[in-house]
Amino acid sequence: MIINEVKFMGSFPKASESPQMEIPEYAFIGRSNVGKSSLINALLGRRDMAHVSGKPGKTQMLNYYHIDEQWMVCDLPGYGYAKLSKKHRTSLERMVKGYLVRRLQMQCAFVLIDSNITPQAIDLEFVNWLGSKGIPFVLIFTKADKPKKDKLEKNVEAFQQKLLEDWESLPTHFVTSSLTGAGSEEILSFINEVNEGFYQRK
Ligand SMILES: Nc1nc2c(ncn2[C@@H]2O[C@H](COP(=O)(O)OP(=O)(O)OP(=O)(O)O)[C@@H](O)[C@H]2O)c(=O)[nH]1
Ligand SMILES: [Mg+2]
Asked: Which CATH superfamily is domain 6-201 in?
C-alpha cells in the first residue's frame, strides 16, 4: 500500500470526544515504551509524526492520524508505566479500555509486545481482557533488531504457549523493527485487506 497523505487529527482525552468518521480505524496499544509511536512512524513513512521518547509514558492521550482520507490510526497511551501514580495509571487505563470498548469503527487493535523479553503478566492480562470483550486484535512483536534470532523465536513461542493456556487458537502475529522497517509491509497489506472488506460492505 502506498501512503500519500497523513494528517494529524489531534489529541483527545476520551473516545466520546474524538473525531467521528465512519472509516476503518486501527489502534496501537501495548506497554509503555514498547515502541508504539515508533512503529506508527515506520508504517506511515514519517520520521516524527508520532512522538517517540526514550522515557516511558510519553503518549498520554488518544492521538489520531488520518491516512489518505481512507483510514485512521490511533496511538494510545501505554499501560503499566510503574513511575506514574496509581491514580494516573488508573485514569490512563480507563481511557484506553473505554476507547477499545466504545470505538465501533476500530477494526483491529495492534497489541505490541517487546520481542526482547519473556512473557509478561501485564501483557497476557491485557490480551486476555481483549479476548474476553471480543475485541479484534493481532500481536506485534517489536524491536526485533535487538535480540538474537533464536532468542526472538523463543520469546514469541513462549508468549503463544502462555496464550494457549487460556485460548484454543492463536491470534495472527507480526514481527517488526522500526529501525530496519522489518514487518511494515506485512502490516500495511493486512490493513489494506481489512480496509477493502470494510469498503465492500458499505
Ligand atoms: N532498537 C529498537 N528500538 C526501538 C524500536 N522501536 C522503538 N524503539 C525505542 O524504544 C523507545 C520507546 O519508543 P516509543 O515509540 O516512544 O514507545 P511508545 O510505546 O510509544 O512509548 P509510550 O508512548 O511512552 O507508551 C525509544 O527510545 C525508541 O527509540 C525498534 O524497533 N528497535
Ligand atoms: Mg508513544
From this structure: P-loop containing nucleotide triphosphate hydrolases (3.40.50.300)
pLDDT tens digit string along 96-119? Answer: 999 999 999 999 999 999 999 999
Residue from 123, 178, 180 whose mutation best tests the ligand 1 pocket (most atoms within 8 A of CB): 178
DSSP conformation class of 31? B
pLDDT attached to residue 144 = 98
Closest CA to 137 of 56, 35, 28: 28
Domain ranges of the chain: 6-201
Question: Which residue has the least CA distance to atom 8 on ligand 1?
Answer: 35
Instruction: State how far the Cα of 184 lies from the Cα of 23, in Å rounded to an integer.
Output: 21
The ligand placed nearest to the CA atom of residue 145 is 1
Claim: this prediction has a pTM higher than 0.90:
yes
